[in-house]
Amino acid sequence: MQHNIGMTKFALISHSVPPERSGQAVILSRLLQNLPPERYCILSKQSISPGNIYLLPRPFRITRGSRWGLATLRQEVNTLIGRAQYLPALVREIVRIVSAERCTAIVACTGNLWYLPAAHAASRALGLPLIVYIFDYYSHQHLDGALASTLACDWERTILPNAAHVIVTNEVLADELSRRYRITPVVLHNPCDLTEYANNPAISRLDDKIRIVFTGAVYEAQADALTNLCAALEQMDEPRITLHLYSRFDLQWLERYGRRIIFHGNLKMEEIVTVQQQADILFLPLAFQSRFHPLLINTSLPSKFPEYLAARRPILVHAPADSFPALYCRQHGCGLVVDERDPGKLAAAIRLLVDDMTLRQQLTERAWERACADFDLRKIGPRFAHLFNTF
């Protein structure tokens, strides 16, 4: 059923858009799937499909010069060039497209340093409301040098209090931005199409091979937690327990744990549900130590989290105590949480999940309850569409 948004047409600006496979693109795809295509247009750096997707220019970047400590200087110069030349050009292009499409609102997603300030400037030039969609904490997301970080902080401080709406994916980020900027963000949890998870896998006794499954991107935001799991499996020395990684990312740094890990590569979208529902344990890691600011880690909501809940398999969360997944699973009893960087405690948690069939049943039942309560696309999609009825 298509959602009614009146005569509103909005321009959606995002660095990652459908049909890409990134978490942000998947979430946007779900939110847009029941909206009439004439009610929005997409602006992105990706030229990946025809229709109402407009290609935005890319910034000029100096790519050579990394020896003798020049990489840092190169980053700063690129940011200076971007602010002086690319940002004004980007604003002009957004104004041109939004005017031609006769949009009545602009939605700017995080993930690209330049898109948020450009969308803000364009909205002011055209007199249109701006909706900021924060998938990850903008001011802590950009690590391309000190100047980029400073600009992101300045722009965030200016733009968020003046936006028509600020959308966030979870309550931890909402509380943080509310405290910092005295705003009231709209919480839209990352939605999941629960109809894809209609099959209810039975919880049985675990006697034979035990599959711990991780699906999705693996990078520094998960790295040390994933390494902890591998170390825990080494300590346990249980040949029947193996970790199955389904990811398109290069995972050679984990090959020293090869006898405990089975690498499967990337999954097709239609295969993800089956793999998740066939897992004995679904593993959700977030880094304890990384080059990312702890607030970026703690306020993130991985797109796989609602999928894990919907899969109705026991979830093992290994993440900092103040992170949203850890807080949510503790509050609702829908996942077992290990919030210390301790392979021994992680091993103990795995043994508990393996041995306690009653616990596994309780976790899976509560996980499905929370998926239906907080992450159902049939509830979140209309809430997203309704935001445009307020203009």
Individual helix count: 13
Largest sheet, order of strands side by side? 3-2-1-4-5-6-7
Structural class, from helix and strand content? alpha/beta
The CATH topology label of the largest domain is Rossmann fold
When the domains are counted, the total is: 2
For the record, what CATH class of the largest domain applies? Alpha Beta
Shape: globular
Which residues form runs of ≥5 with pLDDT under 50?
1-6
**What quaternary form is this?**
single chain
Radius of gyration: 22 Å
- What's the number of extended β-strand segments? 13
Helix and strand pattern: EHEEHEHEHEHEEHEEHEHHEHEHHH
User: What does the largest sheet look like?
Assistant: 7 strands, parallel
Straight-line N-to-C gap: 23 Å
> Please, what is the CATH homologous superfamily of the largest domain?
Glycogen Phosphorylase B
Q: What is the percentage of strand-forming residues?
A: 5-15%
What features would you describe in this structure?
It contains 13 helices and 13 strands. With 391 residues, the protein is of the alpha/beta class. The chain has 2 domains: 197 residues, Glycogen Phosphorylase B (Rossmann fold, 3-Layer(aba) Sandwich); 181 residues, Rossmann fold, CATH 3.40.50.2000. It has a 7-stranded parallel beta sheet with strand order 3-2-1-4-5-6-7. β6, α5 and β7 form a beta-alpha-beta unit.
Essential attributes:
391 residues, alpha/beta, Rossmann fold, 2 domains, 13 helices, globular, disordered N terminus
Brief account:
The chain has helices at 23-32, 70-101, 115-126, 146-159, 171-181, 223-236, 269-277, 294-298, 304-311, 324-332, 343-355, 357-374, 377-386, and strands at residues 10-13, 40-44, 53-55, 105-109, 130-134, 165-168, 186-187, 210-215, 241-246, 261-263, 281-285, 315-318, 336-338. By secondary structure, the chain is of the alpha/beta class.
